[in-house]
Amino acid sequence: MPNIYYCNGLANNDLGMLRAVLSWEECTNLLKLFSVQYSGLQFPTMTKQDQGFAVLNMLKGEPDDAWRVGFYSFDADLLQIEEWVQACVGSRNPLPGQKLAD
């Protein structure tokens, strides 16, 4: 399952924070809205000047051979990605008293 990481150069580590684990269908929908650039097999490096960015990790065994295993950097602003993630996660986890759509 593809993963989204949020990265900020002000953090005390070199890796991002896991933000979401996506189904393949969710990932496909995300990639219709936002473009990505392949970064390679290693997690992209960050600098103190980085304002924040999102990274998609495609794991071995994903169902679509069009995508290489590794990390992809989003071209979109981090806040745009977060809006999508919140909508996606919100549809999976309705508020108490709400039912999932059929």
What can you tell me about this protein's structure?
The chain has two helices and five strands, in the order E-E-H-E-E-E-H. By secondary structure, the protein is α+β, with helices and mostly antiparallel strands. Strands 2-1-4-5-3 form a five-stranded antiparallel β-sheet, with helices on one face. The longest helix is centred in the last third of the chain and has 15 residues, at 78-92. 15% of the residues are buried. The mean pLDDT is 81.
In brief:
The protein has 102 residues and is of the alpha+beta class. The chain has helices at 24-33, 78-92, and strands spanning 3-7, 17-21, 36-40, 53-58, 70-74.
Q: What is the number of domains?
A: 1
The overall pLDDT, averaged over residues, is 81
Given the helix and strand composition, which structural class is it? alpha+beta
Q: Which outline best applies?
A: globular
Q: State the end-to-end CA separation.
A: 23 Å
Gyration radius from CA atoms, angstroms:
14 Å
How are the SSEs ordered, and which strands pair?
Layout: E1 3-7, E2 17-21, H1 24-33, E3 36-40, E4 53-58, E5 70-74, H2 78-92
Antiparallel strand pairs: 1-2, 1-4, 3-5, 4-5
Keywords:
102 residues, globular, alpha+beta, 5-stranded antiparallel β-sheet
